[in-house]
């Protein structure tokens, strides 16, 4: 991509500070996740207990939310390329406000489904718009001598993880009132985000070109290097999804309860918040983008192997949790390498002017891989094979994905 004249200010040490726009977008990610995760962790229980939905219907509704979000990221990204990020972000925030407010008052199945679809589509608008602009600004920051683009994207990841950590705490506090209050406060957070962006987000961002929606998908589908990155990233997301599929089974087996899951999730979040930037800085000074992703995928594979190799011992209690904790730690460190690096790589593979489309496609294609792979993983876990086999098979997935990474 060409250098962008963004007016980044020089800081001591000949590095440039982050531009005001980057500051805004990174804080946006923090606010998005606080508002979203204040509601999402409590949605399943609300649908089952308060609304009275059957278990299969709860799963269906949650799946619809994922589909309306991840599956439509490519649409949101294309719209951001066509109209700029400001109108797309503002529209997404407005839809999220309406969706949360509707969900708080929804008591019928059709109303819940409508609200959930609206919530998911809102993210499909604003998330690829914000993510693509952060990636574009990160490249400009790097080209201006401000430091590695990966470090900027790592800071973006930290902001998102911090929001994912604070959001459920806020939601749990508000749940003492009722679920409607949780939804309305979540909507209120997005009202503040909408107002802040209406005031601060520029009408036109220097260097950003607007392109027609039509004509972008053909070159994307012929871009083998980009699709290979999508597949490798999808393998990582499939592995990360095991925090919610394979890990609960392992914790239940080891302790007879899923209570320790909360501590393991907290461990993962705290590791990202405290270690992401030092890890990115250390790796960025030593490894290329490809080697960073290779290292991350190997760490993730090692996490699955730790549990797989320990399963035949049949440890229980505290000792039985040690392999699960090792899995979480290795998976999280692998995530620290893979997630920001994959986003940093996309601008080098994207067609000029269509970074939004390619950023959205990265999420949509990898989300489809997770959808298909999760079904296969569930079948594998319920297959009755020896306890170590599913975990060792899962270890092969990220390791095999290394062969898909672009060579250059």
TrEMBL record:
CDD domains: MFS_MdtH_MDR_like
Keyword annotations: Cell membrane, Membrane, Transmembrane, Transmembrane helix, Transport
Residues in Major facilitator superfamily (MFS) profile domain copies: 1-408
Topology with respect to the bilayer: Multi-pass membrane protein
The keyword Oxidoreductase is annotated on this UniProt entry: no
SUPFAM superfamilies: MFS general substrate transporter
PROSITE patterns attached to this UniProt entry: MFS
InterPro entries the UniProt entry points to: MFS, MFS_dom, MFS_trans_sf, MFS_Transporters
Pfam families: MFS_1 (PF07690)
Domain of life: Bacteria
GO molecular-function term, one example from the UniProt record: transmembrane transporter activity
PANTHER family for the chain: MULTIDRUG RESISTANCE PROTEIN MDTH (PTHR23517:SF2), RESISTANCE PROTEIN MDTM, PUTATIVE-RELATED-RELATED (PTHR23517)
Protein name stated in the entry: Major facilitator superfamily (MFS) profile domain-containing protein
Species in which this protein is naturally found: Streptomyces dysideae
High-level lineage: Bacteria, Bacillati, Actinomycetota, Actinomycetes, Kitasatosporales
């Amino acid at each position: 991509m060409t250098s962008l004249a963004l007016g980044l200010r020089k800081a001591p040490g000949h590095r440039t500070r982050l531009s005001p726009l980057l500051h805004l977008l990174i804080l946006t990610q923090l606010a998005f996740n606080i508002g979203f995760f204040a509601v999402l962790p409590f949605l399943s229980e609300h649908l089952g207990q308060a609304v009275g939905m059957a278990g299969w219907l709860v799963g269906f509704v949650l799946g619809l939310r994922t589909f309306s979000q991840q599956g439509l990221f490519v649409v949101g990204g294309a719209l951001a390329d066509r109209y700029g990020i400001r109108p797309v972000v503002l529209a997404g925030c407005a839809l999220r406000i309406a969706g949360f407010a509707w969900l708080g008052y929804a008591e019928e199945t059709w109303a819940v489904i409508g609200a959930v679809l609206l919530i998911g589509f809102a993210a499909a608008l604003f998330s690829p718009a914000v993510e693509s602009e952060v990636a574009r600004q990160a490249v400009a920051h790097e080209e201006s001598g401000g430091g590695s683009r990966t470090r900027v994207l790592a800071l973006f990841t930290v902001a998102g993880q911090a929001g994912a950590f604070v959001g459920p705490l806020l939601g749990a506090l508000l749940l003492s009132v009722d679920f409607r209050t949780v939804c309305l406060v979540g909507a209120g957070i997005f009202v503040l985000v909408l107002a802040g962006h209406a005031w601060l987000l520029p009408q036109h961002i220097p260097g950003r070109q607007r392109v027609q929606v039509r004509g972008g998908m053909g070159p994307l589908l012929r871009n083998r290097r980009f699709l290979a990155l999508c597949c490798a990233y999808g393998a990582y997301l499939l592995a990360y999804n095991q925090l919610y599929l394979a890990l609960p089974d392992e914790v239940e087996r080891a302790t007879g309860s899923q209570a320790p899951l909360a501590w393991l999730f907290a461990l993962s979040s705290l590791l990202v918040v405290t270690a992401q930037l030092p890890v990115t800085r250390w790796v960025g000074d030593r490894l290329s983008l490809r080697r960073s992703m290779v290292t991350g995928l190997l760490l993730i594979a090692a996490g699955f192997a730790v549990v797989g190799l320990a399963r035949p011992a049949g440890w229980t209690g505290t000792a039985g949790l040690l392999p699960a904790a090792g899995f979480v730690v290795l998976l999280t460190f692998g995530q620290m390498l893979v997630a920001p690096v994959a986003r940093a790589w996309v601008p080098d593979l994207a067609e000029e002017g269509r970074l939004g489309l390619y950023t959205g496609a990265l999420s949509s294609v990898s989300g489809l891989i997770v959808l298909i792979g999760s079904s296969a993983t569930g079948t594998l876990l319920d297959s009755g094979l020896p306890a170590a086999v599913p975990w060792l098979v899962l270890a092969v997935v990220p390791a095999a994905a290394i062969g898909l990474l672009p060579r250059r």
